[in-house]
Amino acid sequence: MSTLRNKVQLIGNLGNDPEILNLDSGSKLAKFSIATNESYKNKKGERVTDTQWHNIVAWGKTAEIIETYVTKGKEIAIEGKLTSRSYETAAGEKRYVTEVVCNELVLLGK
Fold first, then answer.
1. Is 41 exposed, middle or buried (0-12, 13-18, 19+ CB in 10 A)?
2. Over the stretch 42-77, which tens digit does the pLDDT of each residue have?
3. Quick check: 28 and 22 in contact, CB under 8 A?
4. I want to staple 6 with a disulfide (CB 3.0 to 4.6 A). Which of 23, 27, 61, 81 is the partner?
């Protein structure tokens, strides 16, 4: 059961082309967001679609695959873990970020 502790699986479409960073250490980082859609009927019986945006980061070989094959609008499935971090802006404001660190990727669609 310990393998189920922090596991995220999402299927969605990219909102923009991934941002690829080549770090000084030689590692590659891919940053992008995907949209997931959920449809339901409201109290009036009308169909409503709820779109959620998820920030995704990927490292190493996964980032290389994303750089080569993944573009805006592409449907993908990802698996990873949920992480949270904080940082301080130049103006001294503290910001919080929640991301999914992708460790597996499946290209879907055309």
1. exposed
2. 899 899 999 999 999 999 999 999 999 999 999 999
3. yes
4. 81
Residue 58 and residue 102 in contact, taking contact as beta carbons nearer than 8 Å: yes
Q: What is the pTM of this model?
A: 0.84
Could you tell me the CATH number of the domain that includes residue 84? 2.40.50.140
Q: Given phi > 0 = left and psi -120 to 50 = alpha, else beta, which region is 45?
A: left
AA identity, residue 11: I
Q: Note down the domain range covering 54.
A: 2-38+47-107
CB distance 106 to 77 below 8 Å = yes
Measure Cα distances from 45 to 12, 40, 42 in Å. 26, 9, 5
